[in-house]
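Q: What does the assembly look like in three dimensions?
Context provided by user:
Components: two
Sequences:
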Amino acid sequence: MKIGVNLLNWGPGVSPDALARTTALIEALGYHLVMISDHVAPTPDVAAKYPTPLYDPFTTLGWLAGATRSIELGTTVIILPYRNPILTARMAATVDRLSAGRFIFGVGVGWAKQEFEALGVPFARRGAISNDYLAAIKTLWTRDVASHAGPFVSFKDVHTAPRPARSPHPPIWIGGSTDAALRRAVRYGDSWHPNRVRMNCCGTPGCRSSRPSPRPRASPCPRSAHASDSS
Amino acid sequence: MPALCPRIRLELTDSPRPDAERLIGQGTLDQMRKDLEALESLGAAYVLLDSAGDDPQATRDQEPLWRMLATLAEKVLDLPHQTLR
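A: Here is the predicted structure of the complete assembly.
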């Protein structure tokens, strides 16, 4: 089991020096992974939890790729539906190249309705948008010239190079603790990335003594407290 | 099937916290060890430790995080072998 650290790329104490020093310490201690968060337009609902300054994750990870040697670098999580998927695919592939295949693509559907409104993205469709964007991004990562026709994004004959360093693509972690997130993880992801887990959340008194299993079951985590994502 | 890679709290305390009132990763070093053992037994491929608490101002001082990470690496985690001590 590998252990990673959520590196805080937001808040009043964050600076390039703090990011670099903390990452260097985490790598020196032998941790396997550093991940950072994403918000594009911190509206009041976001800023209350993630106060600025808030450093962009792709740019920051590209910079950290050059400052580290072996630690994996990822996102926890990119808010997928409010970023253009063609641009997202290119930025993620570039970080994977710059880090020699150390990038992990953690994604979520988002929770901040005001932020979606600021960006002109329909909050209620964020799950369906995310599914379409994931399919598009996987196509972009695995074809030299990619085309996609979906309900929310369509393109034809887009030249994609550089492809990601990892083949077929960087690991995709699906964030969220809803049933929809788990379905999305099974369909599009390599990993399920729930947050703020309670060990007894499945309601089974013997949860802690569950038999060892090589794969997660559907019920170790609670339903999300955030707005519904039913897609 | 996807691998399990949860993000859990990293909040070490001197006194135990009641299991019913805490998230995974909140509590003493011994509680953290048991939480990680349980996740390992469930087959977790990665665990991401999250020090972000309810007070954003805490980001001004990184040293408590550094101390917790060093303590975990020394007393609980066997990072080179990707398991627990």
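Follow-up: The first strand of chain B starts at residue 3 and ends at 4.
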